[in-house]
Design brief:
The protein has nine helices and 17 strands. With 357 residues, it is an alpha/beta fold. It has two domains: 109 residues, D-serine dehydratase-like domain (Lyase, Ornithine Decarboxylase, Chain A, domain 1, Beta Barrel); 221 residues, Alanine racemase (TIM Barrel, Alpha-Beta Barrel). Strands 1, 10, 11, 12, 13, 14, 15, 16 and 17 form a nine-stranded mixed sheet that branches. The chain has an eight-stranded parallel sheet with strand order 2-9-8-7-6-5-4-3. The radius of gyration is 22 Å and the shape is elongated.
Length: 357
């Protein structure tokens, strides 16, 4: 089946482009001797995670326990949950994961450490943890240096926990446009993480993992001394957000296919895909093959204003749009249609869709 024979809205991924982007990230990590643990929140799809691991990823990163449950059930076992797992319901679910799924969770408080330790002890398990360090994003995480070392000491008092390292995310520097200034800002942020790791080592703690990085810092995070792995995820698709705001020079692999359902006048094109099919929170989708003046999304429609009057596209024609932001588009769809040369090669379930808990 050709992609234009599909019903719409449809979420499409070009396999040739995505696989080339996967290879690009894997090669960048390999060249610097850094491991790749890609974030799956951008795709939430088992088949894509397997492609990343086949290309050299050591495991995966996820945002939610529900995503980890899906991945573990699919036989993917080296999983970092880059979030705090808090509360008796979630901690119990964490301990119910298959033992061969040696999941790592992040911690940044003594209260969470004690909670995890008590439940892990009762379950007869030894839970791997990393300390989340605030490297300037000012979201979660302990402060660098002495506070990180202090939390490491608290973790060490609990035999049911195994401290394996630190993690951080330098998101606050991603939108810096000047390459020189951005390189310096990334280095400064990650230095807070590696400094904390070294301080913990000197206090006698295992710091095998120093994890950071994302698509917005891909060009810089892989080359920082002391980093052992990066969590770059969305680069495998690229999108309008990463392309325009972060300057990521990779082809875009993910699109939404929509149908022209109305042509109210010669400059206006109405599509059957709106915010429920593709997000516009970080960037607007970009229609392909049209000379566009503006794009506006409502719940179920896209309104495209053309730069000049045109008889085309016609009602019933199909238009592809490069998505604005993968993280907030993928979860809107039940499936991804994988294409090879414009033909349907596979249909993948978005297995992590709705896994918010």
């Amino acid at each position: 089946m050709n992609k234009f024979d599909l019903d719409t809205p449809a979420l499409l991924v070009d396999l040739d482009v995505m696989e080339a982007n996967i290879a690009h990230v894997a090669d960048a990590c390999r060249a610097q001797g850094v491991a790749w643990r890609p974030h799956v929140k951008s795709h939430k799809t088992i088949e894509i995670a397997r492609k990343q691991i086949a290309a050299g990823a050591i495991g995966v990163t996820c945002a939610k326990l529900g995503e980890a449950e899906v991945l573990a059930a699919a036989g993917i076992h080296d999983i970092l949950i880059a979030n705090q797992i808090v509360g008796p319901i979630k901690v119990k679910r964490l301990m119910a994961l298959p033992r061969e799924a040696d999941v790592i969770v992040s911690v940044d408080s003594e209260a969470n450490v004690v909670e995890l330790a008590e439940v892990a002890k009762a379950a007869g398990r030894k839970q791997r943890v990393v300390i989340e360090v605030n490297t300037g994003m000012n979201r979660a995480g302990v402060e660098p240096g002495a506070p990180a070392v202090a939390l490491a000491g608290i973790i060490a008092r609990h035999p049911s926990l195994r401290l394996v390292g630190v993690m951080g995310w330098e998101a606050h520097v991603t939108a810096i446009q000047d390459p020189t200034i951005k390189a310096e800002a990334v280095a400064d942020a990650i230095a807070l993480l590696t400094y904390s790791a070294q301080a913990c080592r000197e206090a006698g703690h295992d710091m095998s993992i120093v994890s950071c990085g994302g698509t917005g810092t891909l060009q810089y995070c892989v080359s920082q001394p002391g980093v052992t792995e990066v969590q770059v995820g969305g680069a495998i698709f690229n999108d309008e957000h990463y392309r325009t705001h972060y300057g990521l020079d990779l082809p875009c692999a993910l699109t939404v296919l929509a149908t022209v359902i109305s042509r109210p006048n010669p400059t206006r094109v109405i599509l059957d895909a709106g915010r429920k099919a593709m997000s516009n929170d970080m960037a607007l989708p970009r229609p392909l093959g049209l000379d566009v003046a503006s794009v506006k999304l409502s719940a179920e429609h896209a309104q495209i204003e053309l730069s000049a009057a045109s008889e085309t596209p016609h009602i019933g024609d199909k238009i592809e749009l490069v998505i604005g932001y993968s993280d907030t588009t993928i979860h809107l769809h039940e499936e991804i249609v994988a294409l090879r040369g414009g033909a349907v090669a596979a249909v993948w379930k978005v297995a992590g869709r709705g896994k918010l808990k």
